[in-house]
UniProtKB/TrEMBL annotation:
<dbReference type="Pfam" id="PF14493">
    <property type="entry name" value="HTH_40"/>
</dbReference>
<feature type="domain" description="Helicase Helix-turn-helix">
    <location>
        <begin position="254"/>
        <end position="343"/>
    </location>
</feature>
<dbReference type="InterPro" id="IPR008308">
    <property type="entry name" value="YpbB-like"/>
</dbReference>
<dbReference type="InterPro" id="IPR029491">
    <property type="entry name" value="Helicase_HTH"/>
</dbReference>
<protein>
    <recommendedName>
        <fullName>Helicase Helix-turn-helix domain-containing protein</fullName>
    </recommendedName>
</protein>
Length: 353
């Protein structure tokens, strides 16, 4: 059982959190960061936003092979709709959870979209400062995307003294935060940076230098990026590198359009007609908004008494499955939309069902 990959181990850990109430595809979509209404609901209802976008590069074919391997090893059972843990799988995860040192911070839902451009900006800034202060203009930039280089031009200091000051402040900002992390995580981040006469290492190279799999190196490196983003408020240059990248509310582009009309006072029917979409699609958008916005007027869609019934039932039944909850409150005027909206609101950032 010790020959499981790191990705397989995380799959089992997430599956244990979902309590056998979701499909294999649901777990795949969470780990790869698919922004669909169903996936967003899943991560909010089950409080697993930190797992979102952990392995965005995990191919469907490889995922299928690795989950089938878990089934053959009798760690999980899979049927057409749901995947659940078997006793040996639970034992494995119990042992893993008791010994594994998790990163200090990781939130793929909050920072998954910002992590890559933030890292590219920061890495290019460090490299350019290093070469400039060494008096060398001849080097290949670590990232050549036009938008990344344009950002750097906008903040680039004009004088050598300003460059020294920027480098000193940025160094202190990074050191202050990295010193609070486990050595292996600070190592992963530091050795990926490039500078004068030094080329940052790839994750594969870092994996070969440590006892960590490449997938775990990727996960822990991203966790450092998330940590820096989470603590950028009291910095100067980390905050500049994150400018316009982190949104207060993480919404899909199509939901943002619906929110625009909602803020103008349009009804669900109005928005569906204007956008030429099904009512159910607009309802999906409202569920997404409810999970992110503490000011969402849920009482306009679900009476407070019904909200309380739904929350109480979810707790009593110890489930987030819509069908189970609906069948448990047969005497109430409740439909699946009421349940979804209530679970999204109270299971998101504003409460815990």
């Amino acid at each position: 059982m010790n020959n499981l990959s790191f990705r397989q181990t995380i799959f089992l850990y997430l599956l244990n959190q979902l309590d056998g109430e979701r499909s294999v595809n649901s777990i795949f979509h969470i780990l790869t960061g698919k922004k669909s209404s169903q996936t967003i609901q899943d991560i909010k209802w089950y409080n697993v936003t930190n797992y979102f976008h952990m392995f965005p590069y995990w191919k469907a074919s490889a995922f299928k092979e690795e989950t089938e391997d878990l089934s053959k090893k009798e760690l999980i059972h899979i049927d057409e709709k749901l995947v659940g843990m078997l006793p040996e799988g639970k034992l494995y995860i119990t042992n893993f959870a008791s010994t594994y040192e998790w990163p200090v911070f990781f939130n793929g839902w909050k920072y998954g979209q910002a992590e890559t451009p933030f890292w590219k900006r920061l890495a290019l800034l460090v490299q350019c400062l290093s070469y400039s202060l060494a008096g060398s203009r001849s080097f290949v930039p670590v990232f050549e995307e036009e938008d990344i280089q344009q950002w750097l031009k906008q903040i680039w200091p004009k004088t050598i003294d300003d460059k020294r000051k920027m480098a000193d402040v940025l160094f202190r900002e990074l050191i202050q935060l990295l010193e609070t992390l486990p050595d292996k995580d600070a190592f992963l981040f530091s050795y990926r940076l490039s500078g004068y006469r030094y080329t940052g290492l790839t994750l594969r190279q870092l994996s070969s230098m440590s006892v960590l799999e490449e997938d775990e190196c990727y996960f822990r490196f991203q966790a450092v990026i998330h940590y820096l983003l989470e603590h950028m408020a009291d910095t100067i240059y980390l905050k500049k590198a994150a400018e316009d990248l982190v949104e207060r509310r993480v919404l899909t582009s199509t939901t943002k359009k619906t929110l625009h009309y909602l803020n103008q006072g349009f009804t669900i029917e109005d928005i569906a007609n204007i956008r030429r979409l099904k009512r159910s699609t607009i309802e999906d958008h409202l569920v997404e908004i409810a999970s992110e916005d503490s000011g969402f007027a849920i009482h306009q869609y679900v009476p407070e008494t019904l909200q309380n019934v739904i929350i109480h039932t979810a707790k009593a039944e110890q489930t987030m499955r819509l069908k189970t909850i609906k069948e448990a409150i047969p005497d109430q005027e409740v439909d699946y939309y009421h349940i979804r909206l209530t679970l999204a609101y109270f299971g998101g950032n504003h409460g815990n069902t």
